[in-house]
Design a protein that fits this description.
The chain is of the alpha+beta class. The protein has one domain: HIT-like (HIT family, subunit A, 2-Layer Sandwich), CATH 3.30.428. It has 6 helices and 12 strands. The strands form 2 sheets. The chain has a 9-stranded antiparallel beta sheet with strand order 3-4-6-5-10-11-9-8-7, with helices on both faces. A 3-stranded mixed beta sheet has the order 1-2-12, with no helix packed on it. Helix 1 crosses helix 4. The longest helix is centred in the C-terminal third of the chain and has 22 residues. The two termini are about 40 Å apart. The structure holds 5,6-dihydrouridine-5'-monophosphate and zinc ion. The site of 5,6-dihydrouridine-5'-monophosphate has 13 residues, from loops.
Length: about 350
């Protein structure tokens, strides 16, 4: 690209936001420390973990002796099913507030305290995908639930309180801000161009291959052209699918395969259990038709240079716009060259 060596900004087609890219800065000297691989191992069962089978949670309930996945309503849920009877802020056009009824669930991926998606194996990971589909279907069908956000927050640097492999689901009445923006952008793109934004984008990425990390029969894993976080990726279904419920059994398994392989590469990058927030963006559950929606997964990892050097969204980024030095193309090349054998295998 003509901008390869010059500061430029790139448009995030999904959000309409811009990111500043400064490729020339990656040439400045870096006296980074060489860090040793993370070899810390955890027990398969931790008596003090509130997600392990048979243990008591804060709410007083005892977890069943589960084998595959286990889902429960969050004991400290950020959302509650009932709206207050009267709206005290009604009519105030300055201090605007609305009730947000909903529910929060925790999804344990495995009874094994010591595993993560990277080391779960494709069969078990496919079980997680099946469970996500069930939850999305069940919560989305509920009266008054307009959106279901499936996500995982992993690693202490991300503020995750427990290493036991798990994710969360927050179901809300309204469509939250970020999926809402993607909804509007995808809708406008289909209306203007007569084609799905992400179908078109994916075709371009599969032709260019510069930002592609790997692919399987049903999914592509890539660093988006407009990525903000250093090693940000997206997983995109090659076929147009509005939600995870559009996947057949083969596609579900292929998604599990893509997630496991990406997580292995991530762990291998800095030889640590790689922290990130990931989430699935898909069509709202408001009952309306959403032909413009192409479901996808976002991975937002904070690490920049090593297992202890993370990117901070501060200064210009907090006050003006996000910025990056490492180009998405360079990040994709790094991820592409990594092994798909986990660094702890056989260690
Ligand atoms: P993290 O993914 O941020 O670690 O969150 C795990 C969730 O588990 C967190 O939202 C919930 C917390 O509220 N939790 C319970 O529901 N029951 C417990 O006994 C402890 C934690
Ligand atoms: Zn545990």
């Amino acid at each position: 690209m003509v901008f390869d060596d010059y500061p430029h900004r790139r448009l995030n087609q999904l959000t309409g936001e811009w990111v500043l890219v400064s490729p020339h800065r990656t040439r400045r000297p870096w006296q980074g420390q060489q860090e040793s691989p993370d070899l810390e191992s955890r027990p398969a069962h931790d008596p003090g973990c509130y997600l392990c089978p048979g243990n008591r949670r804060a709410g007083g309930e005892v977890n069943p002796d589960y084998d595959g996945t286990f889902v429960f309503t969050n004991d400290f849920a950020a959302l509650l099913p009932d709206a207050p009877p009267a709206d005290p802020a009604a009519g105030d056009d300055l201090l605007v507030a609305e009730p947000e009824p909903g529910t929060c669930r925790v999804v344990c991926y495995s009874p094994r305290h010591d595993l993560s998606m990277a080391r779960l194996g494709v069969d078990r990971a496919a079980g997680v995908v099946d469970r996500w589909c069930e939850e999305y279907r069940e919560l989305g069908a509920r009266e008054g639930i307009g959106h279901v956000q499936i996500f995982e927050n992993r690693g202490a640097v991300m503020g995750c309180s427990n290493p036991h492999p798990h994710g969360q689901i927050w179901a809300t009445a309204s469509v939250p801000m970020l999926p809402g923006r993607e909804d509007a952008r995808q809708r406008a793109h289909l209306a203007d161009r007569g084609e799905c934004l992400l179908c078109r984008y994916l075709r371009r990425e599969l032709a260019d291959r510069e930002r592609l990390v790997f692919e399987n029969g049903h999914f592509a894993v890539l660093v988006p052209f407009w990525a903000t976080w250093p090693f940000e990726t997206m997983i995109l279904p090659k076929a147009h699918m509005a939600s995870i419920l559009d996947m057949d059994a083969a596609a579900r398994r292929a998604l599990a395969d893509a997630m496991v392989r990406l997580n292995v590469r991530y762990d291998n990058l800095f030889q640590t259990s790689f922290p990130f927030s990931m989430g699935i963006h898909q069509q709202p559950t408001d009952g309306a038709d959403h032909p413009h929606w192409h479901f996808h997964l976002h991975y937002y990892p904070p690490l920049l240079r090593s297992k202890s050097v993370k990117k901070f969204m501060v200064g210009f980024e907090m006050l003006a716009m996000p910025a990056r030095d490492l180009t998405p193309e360079a990040a994709a090349a790094r991820l592409r060259e990594l092994s798909e054998v986990h660094y702890l295998e056989g260690a």
